[in-house]
Amino acid sequence: MSRFWDAVKRTVTGDASPPPDVEAALSAARAKTPAPTFWLLGKTQSGKTSLIRYLTGAEDAAIGSGFRPCTKTSRLYQFPTSDAPLLNFLDTRGVDEPGYDPTEDIAAFDPKAHVVIVTAKATDFAQGNVRHALERVREVNRSRPVVLVVTCLHEAIPRQAHPEPYPFGAMTADPNAPVPEGVPEHLRECIEEHKRAFVGLFDLCVPVDLTKSEDGFAEPNYGGEQVKQALLKVLPSAYRQTLLRLKDATDALKDAHQRHAEPIILGYTSLAGTAGAVPVPFVDMVLLPGIQARMAHHIGQIYGQPMTPERLRELVTAIGVGMISRQLVRQVVKFIPVVGSAVGATVAAASTYALGRALCFYFEAVCEGHVPTPDVLRKFYHEHYDAAEKQWKIDHPKGEAKAT
To answer: Residue 230: CB partners within 8 Å, gap ≥ 6?
Structure first.
């Protein structure tokens, strides 16, 4: 437990960096954690930020400040945090500029990207530079899926409602499927033109109109669900599960704090599961405290509640000694090949998720003016631990905690 409190103190006092050897182990765990990486290829103002906002639920300001330079003409956004990302977005910014050379971006992104998402505004037909870059990207890896997302449909049908029900379902499954006849003529022509411009370079085409609620459209996320389904269809299985779990977990949440906290919890849960799967006894006893302390710090920030060492010590004590006993048992079973890693991943992930939910429960109560009793908090933690344990086993039936 001394390692746990050392990690807590470093986190809450501003020194969230673990020792170099631990940081190296955490970096290795992140590399094995199945966080899908989407390579965004499109002109400026072609709807890339709107797409990220829809897939993550993050606000534009958070997305903008979250991007970090990656190459001279590209940047990386990791959601919800760079510590424990669930989704990675690589944004190529210079593709619409004369003389753009994708060589550097291809060298940096090709080993990482699972899906290329090409964004093109419905009424913007000057896509020559984008097509040229996509040809180069496609050439180096023809097996990687490319999803063409035609955006801003309302610009092609001003003052008209979106065609309902969503008529482009066949196109999201078959790149050769025609645009249905019932679609307004100009919009149909726009979409067909983009399909011709990128012919042979994409696997699925999804027309969307992702707007803000204040823009006044009856359905601000028109085609959004179809984009998610298209991405789920083309992602490798382990990465597909990550996106699906994020979607399922956040769709049902109404509380704003919880919607923002849930991706944080899921990200650290996935990272903890990967660390727990390390087949060397006691290795994750070093990593897990740092992972959980960082999660606690981030959740406290969401609720506007500082996470002090004393407060976290109080919470962990209230939850009970079950956490410690589970960790000790986990280290013993790790001497059993294969089985030990599966148990380690399950316990690490379930305990991290349950702790995250217990922290949210605690902070919500504090915001309402009262503090849960230790018995109530302990009961809440164990209920969520049991549920998380069952779900992790469903998601990883063979004990697979890392990407394959």
So the answer is: 147, 172, 204, 206
Cα dihedral 352, 321, 299, 353 in deg (nearest 10): 20
pLDDT by residue, tens only, the chain of 404 residues: 455 455 545 544 444 444 445 567 677 777 788 899 999 999 999 999 999 999 998 888 889 999 999 998 899 999 999 888 999 999 998 888 888 899 999 999 999 999 999 999 999 999 999 999 999 999 999 999 999 999 999 999 998 999 999 999 999 889 899 999 889 999 999 999 999 999 999 999 999 999 988 888 889 999 999 999 999 999 988 889 888 888 777 766 656 778 889 999 999 999 888 877 655 444 456 677 778 888 888 998 888 887 777 777 777 777 764 454 455 444 444 444 433 344 567 888 888 999 999 999 988 888 888 888 888 988 999 899 999 989 888 877 755 444 33
| Phi, psi dihedral angles at 124 (to 5 degrees) | -105, 105
Quickly list H helices, 143-255.
185-197, 224-234, 237-251
Q: How far apart are CA 231 and CA 7, in angstroms?
A: 37
- List Cβ neighbours of 65 (8 Å cut-off, separation of 6 or more): none
Q: pTM of the full predicted structure?
A: 0.81
Cα 105 from Cα 132, distance rounded (Å):
14
β-pair type (68-71, 209-210)? unpaired
- Outline where DSSP puts E strands in 218-375: 221-222
Sheet holding 146-151: strands in order across? 68-71, 74-79, 87-92, 37-42, 115-121, 146-151, 204-207
Domains of the chain, by residue range, sit at 2-31+240-395, 37-234
Task: Please tell me the CATH code under which domain 37-234 is placed.
Answer: 3.40.50.300
Number of H helices, E strands in the chain: 15, 9
Count CB atoms within 10 A of the CB of residue 377: 22
Which structure tokens are listed for 135?
Answer: 């040809």
Cis peptide bond upstream of 397, omega within 30:
no
